[in-house]
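REQUEST ID: PR-0412
SUBMITTED BY: lab tech R.K.
PRIORITY: routine
TASK: structure prediction, single protein chain
INPUT:
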Amino acid sequence: MALDVLLDSTYLLPSFGLEVERLSDRDLEALRDAWSRGLVSFYCLSVSWVEVIGSVCREADRLGVRLDRLIEVAVRSLLESGMYTWVDPTPEAVELAFELRLAGHRDVIDNLLYATSVARGMIFLTMDETLRGFLSDRGFRVDNLMDHGDLLEMLGVPRK
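STATUS: complete
OUTPUT:
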């Protein structure tokens, strides 16, 4: 049975040609391999587009490049490839996201991502150590947080 894995927005950026620190092409290939072997099902939260659009546009501005065609291909890949299932937060997730915000965590998208993973019983794939520390320090569960290295090791999928 496949593990349900909710992806942090960071894991979507390589689709737009953006390099992500600590996430290599080998890592991405291994994640793709885990999916193609039916070991994982990847989920994305609809509100992740807020972070993705901001990050992609900032990088394009910084580099002084136009991304029209790349954006079209990347968006279609993310939405239509079948590799990702797009979901919305549940009511319970929104309530937990409010609780996290009121507890002091200001990144509302991360709050919604984490809360959705908890409400839906998913692994939350993230490299965000600040979020992990915040959650741990305040007594929220962190056993469902993993980075790609942890996930691949748990699945026994080598990074080629």
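NOTES: The longest helix spans residues 48-63.
REVIEWED BY: pending
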